[in-house]
Amino acid sequence: MAAKVILILLFTALSFLLNPSESRLTLDYYQQSCPQFSKIIQDTITNKQITSPTTAGATLRLFLHDCLPNGCDGSVLISSNSFNKAERDNDINLSLPGDGFDVIVRAKTALELACPNTVSCADILAVATRDLVVMLGGPYYNVYLGRRDGRVSKSSLIDGHLPKPSMPMSQIIEIFSSKGFTVEEMVALSGAHTIGFSHCSEFTNNIYNFSNSSPYDPQYNPRFAQGLQKACADYRNNPTLSVFNDIMSPNKFDNVYFQNLPKGLGVLKSDQSLFNDPRTRPFVQQFAADQNKFFQAFSQAMQKLSLVGVQTGRRGEIRHRCDQIN
């Protein structure tokens, strides 16, 4: 009996050694199974970004909203149905731009034609995000591959796990801390706002009738606040109205976002709080002064984020469509 148990244990260990990709991520995961993987992703994101310049910011935000709550499993891509309200229909995700979803669908369609049932939506999202950041002048960082797609996507699992612009900085820090991120890493990830945009509805409370003594939050640069008021004047009738998070270089991944904050040029309350809070201000100042330091910190934080809650092997699946569980 003991000999039989030993043989089973040896067989299990041998299986693990022969199939390491079943239980860990690697940089060359698709080298044999889908050698065109990188080129297909690159071609897809290039075409999409050229035709829709907001794609990079949209995809980066989609990636953050997928990974931070429950891990990088592509669950934010799943659509709701009559039996389930999915993550993407949680209030905080309703403003996720469509270009992010669209570029992943396009890449998945192309990869299914070239390598059926091979590449996960979670891996596509992770690599497309990195490649779009690089395309806009941001830093390159390694993305380990072999993720499986999650089989669960529930709106109720999102509440309290993503930062909101109106949250006090202590609460935002706690959200990232609970996932293992330092304050410096949180500030670096906030630098994602160097690209992308925010809907007017996310900050109108700060620019209209702020108090009896001021029509807008005095943390704003006065001319900037007046510009936001004009840009968002029709937001009640047009909820899609939005402004760039970085008004100085909105289509370039750089450190200008951090340089804007001391000047009162942060769009969201949470942006301004990064400079005004003594816990985060030193990192804002460091990143504003040294772009290489920001890029290094951002790369490390993004690589760390891309590994949060990853499912591998039989724990997940390779979805046939990114918006549906198999």
> Level of helix content?
40-55%
CATH level-two architecture of the largest domain: Orthogonal Bundle
Instruction: Say what the CATH topology of the largest domain is.
Output: Peroxidase, domain 1
Give the termini distance in whole angstroms.
Answer: 40 Å
Q: What is the CATH class of the largest domain?
A: Mainly Alpha
Report the structural category.
mainly alpha
How many DSSP helices? Answer: 13
Tally of DSSP β-strands:
2
Total domains: 2
The shape is globular
The largest sheet is: 2 strands, antiparallel
Uncertain spans:
4-22
Taking strands numbered 1, 2, ... along the chain, how are they ordered across the largest sheet? 1-2
What would you note in describing this structure?
The chain has 326 residues and is an all-alpha fold. It has two domains: 24-161 and 306-315, Peroxidase, domain 1 (Orthogonal Bundle), CATH 1.10.520.10; 169-305, Peroxidase, domain 2 (Orthogonal Bundle). The protein is 46% helix and 2% strand. The protein contains 13 helices and two strands; from the N terminus they run αααααααβααβαααα. The protein has helices spanning 2-18, 37-51, 55-70, 98-114, 121-135, 169-178, 183-190, 204-207, 222-231, 256-260, 269-276, 281-289, 291-305, and strands spanning 197-199, 242-244. The protein has a two-stranded antiparallel ribbon with strand order 1-2. Helix 4 packs across helix 5 and helix 12 (281-289) packs across helix 13 (291-305). The longest helix has 17 residues, at 2-18. It starts with a helix and ends in a 21-residue tail after the last helix.
